[in-house]
Amino acid sequence: MADIMTTPPAPEPAAAKPSPPGRYARFRDSDLLASFLSSKLTMVSAFISVAMILGALLATWIAPTNPFDPASVDLMNSLYPPRWVEGGDTRFLLGTDNQGRDLWSAILYGMRVSLIIGIVGVIIAATLGIGLGLLAGYLGGRVDALIMRVADIQLTFPAILIALVIDGVVRSVFQGLGREQTAFSVLVISIGLSFWVQYARTIRGSTMVEKNKDYVHAARLMGVPAWLIMIRHVLPNVIGPVLVILTINLALAIITEATLSFLGVGLPPTQPSLGTLIRIGNDFLFSGEWWIVAFPGLTLAIFVLAVNLLGDWLRDALNPKLR
Length: 323
Prior knowledge:
By secondary structure, the protein is an all-alpha fold. The chain has a single domain (95-322), classed as MetI-like (MetI-like fold), CATH 1.10.3720.10. The chain is built from 13 helices and no strands. It has helices spanning 23-28, 31-37, 40-57, 59-62, 103-139, 141-154, 159-173, 179-210, 214-221, 226-238, 240-262, 274-282, 291-317. Helix 5 (103-139) crosses helix 11, helix 7 packs across helix 8 and helix 12 runs antiparallel to helix 13 (291-317). The longest helix is centred in the middle third of the chain and has 37 residues, at 103-139. It is globular and about 80 Å long.
């Protein structure tokens, strides 16, 4: 009997390794998105915040008039009530103020001014606080003690007092400049100097933990400069809590701007922010023109509440102890 020659079976091809998921796929399956979609209050707050921010940014195209342009303002149209109130004008949805400006347009432009001041002030505070917090936590010793004592002293001065001091210094140094030229700088510097301590203390505490980990020791042994270790290695691992502070401080910065403008340290009536509009409306509140203060105040309250709710959600979502 002839031997039957059999060929060995061909080897099965190796299974292809699945490609790692992309950024969009990781974000879609993340706990952060699931937490956001599971909270109706958070989604409503996000929608309101985004809608109001877009309305402020697109005020040039949305607003019927430009309240900053004197050519578009007519004093004969002053103190009209809202459209649905008896005596209102159909041209003005929310009525007009004492200068004849359309209040709806003034709120949109004022919201944009308040947002710009708040964002710039928070950026200054975050930059200053993060830098000082990294130095204090990483270097320690006398540098840490000096920065923290300065922070303790700064906490004794509220933003209003800092703004008044800065405003007085600017007026004495730059006597030829009026309030219109200096008000923006006074506001953003005051907000920045008032809020940096929270960032510094948060970053300092996280840095003191991170600098004792193995990857930092390895970088030191490799001869990496200290400033590069702080920026490239430590900072990305301690920046998480700052995002929560940024969200909450944005609302606080807008409230601070409104408070300072209400007290007369803020922007002039020719460049109204929400705080300026509230201050102007307060002068006419008891004479019956309630809408001048009511609608800017309501806008400020709604926006601050929405941003605070987002900050509370972000704080809980990024807290591993609550997962």
